[in-house]
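Subject: complex prediction, re-run

Hi both,

The earlier run crashed halfway through, so I resubmitted it with identical inputs.
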Amino acid sequence: MRPVLRIVRESLILGFAEMSAVYTWRTWTFGWLVRLLCQASFYALLGHYVGDDATMRYVLVGNIVVLACLEATIVVISLAGERRIGTLPLLAITPSGHLPVYLGRGLQWTVTGLTSSLVAWCVLPPLLGVPLPWPRAAYAAPVILLVLASSYGYGCALAGVALRARGVEWLVLNLAYGIVMTFGGVNVPVSVWPAPLRVAVNVLPVVHGLQAVRGILDGAPAGHVLRLLGAEALVGAGWYAVAALSMERLVSAGRRDGSLGHAG
Amino acid sequence: MSLLRVVWHAVRLQVALSRRSPEHALVLLIAPMQTTTMLALTLAAHREDVVANAVLAPGLIGLWVASLDYAGRIVTEDRWAGRFPALIAAPVMFGLVVVGRVATVVLVGTAAFAESWLVAAVGFGRRLTIAAPGTFAIAVAATCLATVGTATLLSAVFVVSRARDVLQNSLGYPFYILGGILVPVAALPDWLHPFSRLVFLSWSADLLRGAVHGDTRGWLRAVLAIVALSAVAMAAGLWLTQRYVDRTRREGTVEFA
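This time it finished cleanly. Structure:
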């Protein structure tokens, strides 16, 4: 356990050192965070324009929770960056093995994702005039953490695509996040989609977690909420398994044919 | 070399560069998903009268993304790739080369309009018809012109600014709200209106929606506002670019990446 915790610590130090090359705490707060708040507000305003306060709250809650997914999937860019600068082999030869190190490369985004989502959760509803039912709304915080964890696994799995094809990381990131945003019950209930799509979205992160958040806000029975949380955790575990398999194959093939160090 | 020939060569250069950059197709990936999101929300609320907003907004977002994410990075990427010294050594105005390349990227961005129309027609069975096609065509042309002007300014601002990534990551959604591209400016708080009118998107969005619905009142005023904002941005962009080129020459930093 201790080596894993050390990798987590080092990954966070490295990740935040990278971030500090771009952001100061001021530019992160007044640039990036404000942008995310505007993103959630943009869709919430549409909800209000086409519907009523209930529609606005539905859309706002969805768009706040999905911010955690947005930031967690940026791990695609961090991992593709290691490919671009040719440092994948250096990470692969660590004594702990490549997997924990690769999976840890975007951990800083989970911290910022949790911060962004929770700030939006506290600030936007009163600001836009659709207050949440406190203190019940506080129970959403651990659910957002779970959504963040499953989304990070999803991002790591899709990073496998970005590590294999050159220059597609931004496409992969936007597609990954866009699919969740579009079909994952963020702006409209999953039930509006055709039956095959309704089934397919069950493998996406956020879908069940977001339903659990909505359940908490509406005072749904604890058993119902727990079942949804279990589904979200299962989906997340599935994506981590895909990520582990994908990275294992990448590294073993790369060791065999010497392609792991190819910058892309 | 004539001005048009310079611009044409710049267009060819940008086409050659974009063909090797898959991420330049990002606009075309985002537009269908955004159209689906916005239309699904609009139709779930039974607001057929807002369908035009939901179909036009992804097109405007496409233009803004093309301007912000790709066109805006042109000079910065020239520096990183080592093309900058050769480009400013050529006996043509560097700003014109930037304009030609920016226009190429913006032209690709306009495909987002066609994509969102297709998604609405095929995915949702809503064929958006345009009641005033002449005004619509003028609105699209003016909007593209304004996007080229804005992108020229952004490319100059990004290359002189140390906070390029911060600006690039932050200037999307705040401008979508201010620009009234989905929810009209009239529905935003009053205190935002003066700021909105400084963003060409707000005039473009109103004009495009009006043309779709056949309400062309005040179209000339809107077109003049878009063209004026475009001219100001273009002039500022060309001036700043030239200033930057002169500074790198003076300080001997032309070859710095």
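Chain B has one domain: 3-251.

- K.
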